[in-house]
Design a protein that fits this description.
Helix content: over 70%
CATH superfamily: MFS general substrate transporter like domains
Radius of gyration: 22 Å
CATH topology: Growth Hormone, Chain: A
Number of domains: 1
Strand content: under 5%
Order of helices and strands: HHHHHHHHHHHHHHHHHH
Structural class: mainly alpha
Largest sheet: none
CATH architecture: Up-down Bundle
Length: 470
């Protein structure tokens, strides 16, 4: 290993498994269950956070006698007024003004919570990656970070429902995002550490597929639990992620890293190392494309509950949207799994990644146009099916592509952490931009779909200049 680039001088700790061995199969089994746990907690927390922000903003805006208003009926009245089929009374006009403020506030509030959390995570993930590269322990370099992140994140999730206002929620959720994503990023780095080159596509398919399935099932279960126990629904998922990571540590232990020798970490060198991979043209194109794609994806999917309540016709209540939003995603699961299964093996077989990334991104972009031109519940289901095909294919080849464009495989933790930063930056920019769009268009959610489509199409084009990967 190059000490100049990583400060670590013992490469034996990251030796890869031999193909088709029991050790590799045991690792893949253990890590897919960990990926499932991460997916469950991600899908559940995203849905519950939308509902929690909405409840806080409702309590702030609709006070006194206005607190008993039925948002679903008020939204229907707004649609009738917009269509010139109803004339509101003076009291209704007052409530409709509050509705516009509410729709804008909840979108802005959710974007603030997501964006701050993702920025914090984005800044810290490369630090975690670099530190994990240099970690010395009997459990190896990655497992301590996986366990520490999962345990601390679970505790914070249990406390999250106690947030009395948006400001406290921003702080708590930022810590949740940081800890859980640090655990997940450290786990993802074990793929680069341990999986042989010819099995990276398979590993990406398994872990990506289980993480995606977990996110869908987690959101669906969270929607059902929310209608039964409210925000207490965070607790079961906090327990699940801890169990999943502990099982990984027990079933697929890493080699001891006590023998690594690390040079002193200087602040300037450390900070410059964050962006070292971006000096490589191929990595830079892949990274920018990832930021744009996840920005568009986050814009279109992050407001699913609000779309059902405030965009489609007829509008839904909060309890209906809490269950229906996950169902919309769930219906796309079989199509995503088909994309994952086919593309993972196919890309390994022909040793090509770019065509699959380009095609998957283009499919996702086209899907966003369906609800834009047809704002109904059936359109939301159709959009989910089409997008799932593209997204399933994308999550498989995206990880494989980044591993293959790593400019310095000896600094995999650092540079894959930067890749995760790109994902997180997209997840921060998407909701923030969506919140701005809703504000500009006075509480209207429709333009989000068009902007998301454009961003993902641009991401598709940016994959073309990559040279090192076919």
């Amino acid at each position: 290993m190059s000490e100049q680039t990583t400060g670590v001088t013992d490469s034996s700790i990251s030796s890869r498994y031999q193909p088709r061995t029991p050790a590799l199969r045991r690792y893949l089994t253990a890590y897919t269950f960990a990926a499932l746990g991460y997916g469950l907690i991600g899908g559940a927390s995203n849905l519950l956070l939308s509902l929690q922000v909405q409840a806080l903003e409702f309590a702030r805006i609709f006070t006194g006698s206005d607190a008993s208003v039925d948002i679903q009926k008020l939204t229907t009245l707004q649609a009738q007024v917009n269509a010139n089929t109803a004339t509101p009374t003076a009291s209704q006009e007052h409530l409709l003004k509050l509705l516009t403020e509410f729709n804008t506030a909840k979108a802005s509030g959710l974007s603030t919570v997501f964006s701050v959390a993702v920025v914090v995570t984005m800044i810290c993930l490369p630090i975690v990656g670099t530190l994990s590269d240099r970690t010395r322990s009997r459990w190896g370099r990655r497992v301590p970070w996986m366990l520490g992140g999962a345990l601390s994140g679970a505790v914070l999730l249990v406390v999250l429902p106690l947030a009395p206002n948006l400001a406290v929620l921003v702080v708590l959720y930022s810590l949740v995002s940081l800890t859980i994503n640090s655990s997940q990023a450290s786990g993802a780095t074990t793929v680069a550490d341990r999986v042989p080159q010819e099995r990276i596509g398979l590993a990406s398919a398994l872990t990506g597929g289980l993480a995606y399935l977990g996110a869908v099932v987690g959101a669906l279960a969270a929607g059902i639990l929310f209608n039964l126990i409210g925000l207490g629904a965070y607790v079961p998922f906090a327990i699940i992620v801890v169990v999943a990571v502990v099982m990984f540590a027990l079933l697929a232990p890493d080699k001891s890293s006590k023998g690594i020798v690390s040079s002193r970490l200087h602040l300037k060198t450390f900070l410059l190392a964050f962006v070292a991979a971006l000096r490589d043209a191929d990595y830079r194109w892949a990274w920018i494309a990832k930021v744009l794609l996840y920005s568009g994806y986050a814009m279109a999917t992050g407001y699913a509950v609000y779309m059902l309540e405030s965009y489609i016709t007829p509008a839904m209540s909060a309890s209906q949207a809490a269950v229906t939003a996950p169902l919309i995603t769930f219906i796309g699961v079989p199509f995503a799994l088909i994309g994952i299964a086919i593309v993972g093996r196919w890309s390994d077989k022909i040793r090509r990644r770019k065509p699959f990334v380009i095609a998957a991104s283009a499919i996702m972009a086209v899907s966003f146009l369906v609800p834009f031109v047809w704002p109904t519940l059936p359109a939301m289901f159709i959009q989910s099916i089409v997008m799932s095909i593209g997204f399933g294919a994308f999550i498989v080849v995206d990880q494989a592509l980044f591993i293959e464009v790593l400019p310095n495989p000896d600094a995999a933790g650092r540079d894959l952490g930067l890749s995760g930063l790109g994902l997180n930056l997209g997840q921060a920019l998407g909701p923030a931009l969506a919140g701005v769009i809703v504000t500009i268009f006075a509480g209207a959610y429709g333009p989000i779909w068009l902007v998301a489509c454009v961003m993902v199409l641009v991401a598709t084009v940016l994959i073309i200049p990559i040279k090192r990967v076919r």
